[in-house]
Amino acid sequence: MTPNTRFSLSRVTFPKELTCSMRYSLLSFFLGALLTLAFSPFDHWLLAFVSLSGLSWLWLNPHEHHPIRYGFLFGLGNFSTGVHWVYISMYAYGGAPLFFAVGANILLILYLSLFPLLIGLLLHYLSRPATVRRALLIPLFWITGEIIRSYLFSGFPWLSVGYTQLYGLFKGIIPLAGMFAAGFILMLICSLLAFSYYRSGFAAIFAASLIGVMSFSTQFLSFTTPIGNPISVALIQGNVAQLTKFEPEQMLRDMQDYIQLIDERREQVVILPETAFAFMEELIHDDYLNALDKQYREKNQAIILGMPTGNYEKGEYYNSVITLGSAHGRYHKKHLLPFGEYLPMRRLFSFFRHFVTIPMGDFSRGESVQPLLSTNGVSAGVFICFEGAFGRVVQPYSYAQYLINVSNDGWFQDSIAADQHLQLTQVRALELGREIARATNNGHTVFIRNDGSIAERLPRFQRAVLSYTIQPRTGQTPYAKYGEKPLIYGLLLYAMMCALIFLIEKEQVKSHARYLSTRAN
Q1: Which residues are catalytic?
Q2: Is 86 helix (H, G, I), strand (E, B) or coil?
Q3: Beta bridge mates, 438
């Protein structure tokens, strides 16, 4: 190259196939990021159709043969924008170095991205592009992957596509068969619409329209009815600073502040957040709790509060909800958050404790079946924080007349984690057809109607009290009665139907080949 020669990018050329593949790779990442906007706090649920139809279009494209890459990049786009907040709790409150917290967050994103990657892998080896087979396999593999993800390693169902239908066209499917069923319908319609682009489109569009109309019509069904008189409920949002929440002096001040706020209330039921009393129950003198219990019983007031409990002799400690006054019963959290509330596979992950120290991070699991609470004679089902992400955890409380959720999303500051968490809780209300009273440390503290919509809410990061009248309800939605069994059976039936179609398709190809061979002879 001479001194007068200039280098120009315009002279650099790429093979057409390479540039096309690069564009599609960027598109797949963009579509994954776009899907995040379909979830709370954005709630642009229509973008779920755009994103998932786009992914299906890439997977069905007969001119592209990189479904594995597109699946992985889609996952990276979705989870890097949707769960980027995980590092905050470890770095800001767990004392972890920034590199460790961010590294752990990246590993989680990569792990979650493996699921769409594996779907692309299965599609690559089990079907050809632009075929009925691939179009039908996409929703089956996708929802099966989401169900597995909700169980594997304790489960992490965050950003499952069915949650986008809380305000969407297919919200009526949720009380019928659950959130995953709504996600399956969404994926099936998106896949059929994408397939119509490559093949004769009328049949696919007609099938997608018919499924869509039938699914949309389910939202007009009703399964539960009011029972008894409404009850007045107060939710106390303490807005306790997470950084000092577990310091002994602060714990004492917080407990005193909460008691003062309770004393000012006249509602029948008063609910405090998760670990509102941060002291272990054994460290508080029995006479003190007994005096509070007697005081509230005389006021005919039911107090529900989060508090760690346990037994020193047995070495068992629980993230619990206890009751005072005219409430009865207690609840121990049974689905714990890995690495936050317990350390899984201790030998393998023992190094984790050298980097991160989470207060109250070594709880025991509560019993899988626990009795409902009674609040002034009205039954209530309780679930704590992370448990709200799992329909199967809350589903056994379908006999309760209303639900109580206590949580503390202060671990993740003002990120979108709290909004996403609230959306999961709203879907639990819709699944069971029950109203939910949700008390949190610094938001979102809300009352949720039985259709999943928000009735009343407090602003985040304010100390305040929210009062509302809850209507107890009776009756069971189909999901409350049967859980996810109909979905599992439905997926098995769908898989058998797909296999039958594939066999017929294969026989037709063979028959056509024999016909052509006969004509050639």
Answers
A1: 274, 333, 385
A2: coil
A3: 405, 446
- Mention every residue, 6+ apart, whose C-beta is less than 8 A from residue 50: 31, 34
pLDDT digits (tens, 9 = 90+) for 59-77: 999 887 789 999 999 999 9
Give the span between the Cα atoms of 201 and 428, in whole angstroms.
37
The CA-CA-CA angle for residues 52, 53, 59, to 5°, reads: 90
Domains in the chain: boundaries: 14-221, 226-332+370-481, 484-521
Chain mean position to CA 70: 24
**Quick one: 376 exposed, middle or buried, by C-beta within 10 A (0-12, 13-18, 19+)?**
middle
Q: Are 144 and 491 a contacting pair, CB within 8 Å? A: yes
* Separation of CA 156 from chain center: 7
Tell me 364's DSSP state.
P
Tokens for 69, please give them: 């890459």
Q: Which of 406, 431, 390, 404 is nearest to 165 (CA)?
A: 431
Measure the CA–CA gap between 186 and 39, rounded to whole angstroms.
14
Q: What is the pLDDT of residues 89-144, one digit of tens each?
A: 999 998 899 999 999 999 999 999 999 999 999 999 988 888 889 999 999 999 99
- Beta bridge partners of residue 379, listed in sequence order: 374
Q: How far apart, in whole angstroms, are the C-alpha atoms of residue 14 and residue 453? A: 52
Alpha-helical (H) ranges within 199-274 are 201-217, 248-263
| SS3 readout for 389-419 | HCHHHHHHHHHCCEEEEEECHHHHCCCCHHH
Q: For residue 168, give the H/E element and its range.
A: none
Beta bridge partner(s), residue 311:
316
Measure the CA–CA gap between 274 and 439, rounded to whole angstroms: 8
- The residues that bridge with 469 in the sheet, in sequence order, are 232
- How far from the centroid of its chain's Cα atoms is residue 453's Cα? 16
Query: What whole-number distance in Å separates Cα of residue 46 and Cα of residue 56?
Result: 16
Please, are residues 500 and 273 in contact by the beta-carbon 8 Å criterion? no
Q: Which residue has the tokens 């540039």?
A: 19
- Assess if CATH 3.30.70.260 describes domain 226-332+370-481: no
DSSP labels, 422-477: HHHHHHHHHHHT--EEEEESSS--EEE-TTS-EEEEPPTT--EEEEEEE--EE---
Please write the tens of the pLDDT for every residue from 411-439: 999 999 999 999 999 999 999 999 999 99
C-beta of residue 450 within 8 angstroms of C-beta of residue 473: yes
User: Which residue pairs from 364-370 have beta carbons closer than 8 angstroms and sit at least 24 positions apart in sequence?
Assistant: 364/310, 364/316, 364/317, 364/318, 364/332, 365/332, 365/333, 365/334, 365/335, 365/336, 366/318, 366/320, 366/331, 366/332, 366/333, 366/334, 367/332, 367/334, 368/334, 369/396, 370/331, 370/332, 370/334
